[in-house]
Write a structure and sequence with these properties.
single chain; mainly alpha; Arc Repressor Mutant, subunit A; two-stranded antiparallel sheet; about 5% strand
Length: about 150
């Protein structure tokens, strides 16, 4: 099998897929402000900025800028930890929770539509294959840390 040729076809297909509005919305949901809001929502409580930085694999300065923007929009609050005054905790506001739930539903609807368009068998295979790739990436990240 010519994996280089296959990779070229995949890249072309990914480029075409990326141009679609539903796919763009899904991609935007896993980076930047939407990612931070979703992460806070899933954690259901206070989170340290360093945890978010680690999950997103971006600098603490970039997270600080993102948190400032979200705070200005009244989507989050940052408070000093009462148990350890050196730490800052980040929490969703009611407005942030509402916005995240609305955005989550929109993205879920888009992904559901995309999977339905594949049909049951192909949708299950697509999710299985993406899961394998995600697991390999995570394993590779763990191995990279061992070096």
């Amino acid at each position: 099998m010519d994996y280089v040729e296959l990779a070229m076809r995949l890249m072309e297909n990914m480029f075409m897929l990326h141009k679609g509005k539903k796919h763009q919305e899904m991609n935007r949901s896993v980076c930047g402000e939407p990612f931070v809001l979703e992460y806070l929502y899933m954690r259901k409580g206070d989170v340290l900025p360093s945890e978010i930085s680690s999950q997103m694999e971006i600098s603490s300065a970039r997270i600080a800028a993102t948190l400032r923007t979200l705070e200005k929009k009244n989507l989050i609050v940052r408070q000093i930890d009462q148990n350890d005054r050196r730490r800052v905790l980040v929490t969703l506001t009611a407005l942030g929770k509402e916005a995240t739930e609305k955005h989550h539903k929109k993205v879920l609807d888009n992904v559901t539509y995309m999977l339905e368009s594949l049909g049951e068998h192909d949708a299950q295979e697509y999710v299985r294959i993406i899961g394998r790739l995600a697991q390999k990436k995570e394993n590779r990240c763990l191995n990279d840390q061992d070096i």
